[in-house]
Amino acid sequence: MAVKINTKYLSDFASDDEIGSIMPEVIAADRTLRDGTGKGADFRGWLALPDNYDREEYSRIKAAAEKIKKNCDVFVVIGIGGSYLGARAAIEFVKSPLYNNLKKDTPDIYFAGNGINSAYLNELISICEGRDVCINVISKSGKTTEPAIAFRIFREMLEKKYGEEGARDRIFITTDRKKGKLKELADEKGYETFVVPDDIGGRYSVLTAVGLLPIAVAGIDTDAMMNGAKKAMDYFATVSPEANDAFIYAACRNILYRKGKKTEIMVSYDPALAMMNEWWKQLYGESEGKDGKGLFPASVIFSTDLHSLGQYIQQGERTMFETVINILGDESPFVIPDDPNNIDEMNFISGKTLHFVNRNAFLATVISHSDGNVPNLILDLDGRSAEDFGYLVYFFELACAVSGYTLGVNPFDQPGVEGYKNNMYALLGKPGEEHEKRRSELKNRIY
Ligand code: PA5
Which residue among 138, 141, 146 is best mutated to probe the pocket of ligand 1, counting the most ligand atoms within 8 A of its Cβ? Predict the structure, then answer.
């Protein structure tokens, strides 16, 4: 098993008895999920996805990835929220946060359309100058402002450089099967398209074409990734509830939340997990943060952030708990050199590996934060392989849905995201009765 939960440092805050007491609610939440009797049941396509995906499309994705690897130096992935975080998380997790700077036979990969900053776009355009470029535009709705703007800019760039015909070969679209402006444009222009399934929301979509194409372009073994997810799917569907790590995680989160621990901090000691943390924050924040409820998902990378946020976590408001991803397989042989003069007085760690020091930083911190009344939950993770990534994704998705139903919310909608999108359409002058009405309502509230 790639992920194993450890509650050793939790017993003072959520005892085994308490976990046992809430377990019937968690089991009922899992049944609601699997029976499709809960809110948002139309969005459970991710649950059987590792087994039940479109093989024909999967082969096309692999073929497109090979073509992209051959034809371009820079691959720009345009999307926001669930339409980019998973792919970025996978690339940093399995490869490296320094992926673009590594020696490799795959293209550099940049992300655009995940904000509205002109300096960033300008810099990215200059990075593309003199290099061959392909793009993948990802938007389920096909109408989100940020990626739409970036797509306009990169389409213009590609058409200028390669002509309309040449650009067609370099533009790949991932969107709804049938509807939306992006789908219409893709059909009109003849771009190769991939599908965001109807029954899978953005934040649960990393194992669909949304994540698969960029992940495959990065040279990651997508077969192994899907296999990891399938192992998790099979395991969590059959293991007993008391041994089900996803159930225990959902149970602990809800127990701690009910005790006033309103913030969950995802902790890792490896910077390769920084984007995984961002993906996790969207998954849990959008799934649970509604109806005036929900844990606030935060994240840190230690030991870096021990020198910035460590003070707050140790002694600030006691309203948080930590979930620590402890990577077991990180045993790189990087050894600390000896200094004959011992100027920094650090010779007591000469000859030790960085892994050894990092592990002791982890143990020291878990113990001191527990002493400071911050509950710590450990997720032992085998390593950072593609298979581990697939397994971890499925674990988090399942635990999130079960936890959300235990909390009493619909873990599959995101009405709050629409609020901002609609106000922005109104302020930007989008035509249409609904936008005009909103525009006049907002008139007196403009700063
Ligand atoms: O999870 C979600 O649904 C959102 O974060 C979306 O992924 C995000 O808003 C992007 O939407 P779209 O893919 O429709 O452009």
Answer: 141
Whether residue 285 is predicted with pLDDT greater than 80 in this model: the reply is yes
| Pocket of ligand 1 contains residue 140 by CB under 6 Å | yes
Active site residue 355: no
| pLDDT score at 331 | 66
* Whether pLDDT at 228 is above 80: yes
User: For 404, what's the count of Cα atoms within 13 Å in the CB-facing half-sphere?
Assistant: 27
The residues near 183 (Cβ < 8 Å, ≥ 6 apart) are 142, 173, 175, 176, 177, 193
Q: Give the active site residue among 192, 286, 322, 397.
A: 286
Give the nearest ligand 1 atom to 80 CA.
10
Radius of gyration of the chain (CA): 23
Q: Is the pTM of this model over 0.90?
A: yes
- What pLDDT, in 10s, does the model give residues 146-188? 999 999 999 999 999 999 999 999 999 999 999 999 999 999 9
Looking at the chain, the whole-number percentage of residues with pLDDT higher than 70 is: 100
Q: Is the CB of 424 under 6 A from ligand 1?
A: no
Gap from CA of 235 to ligand 1 centroid (Å): 29
Q: Is the CB of residue 80 below 6 angstroms from any atom belonging to ligand 1?
A: yes
Q: What is the dihedral of CA 109, 113, 117, 123, to 10 degrees?
A: 30
Residue in the structure block whose two tokens are 């470029």: 133
Q: How many residues does the chain have?
A: 447
Separation between Cα atoms, residue 30 and residue 38, nearest integer Å? 10
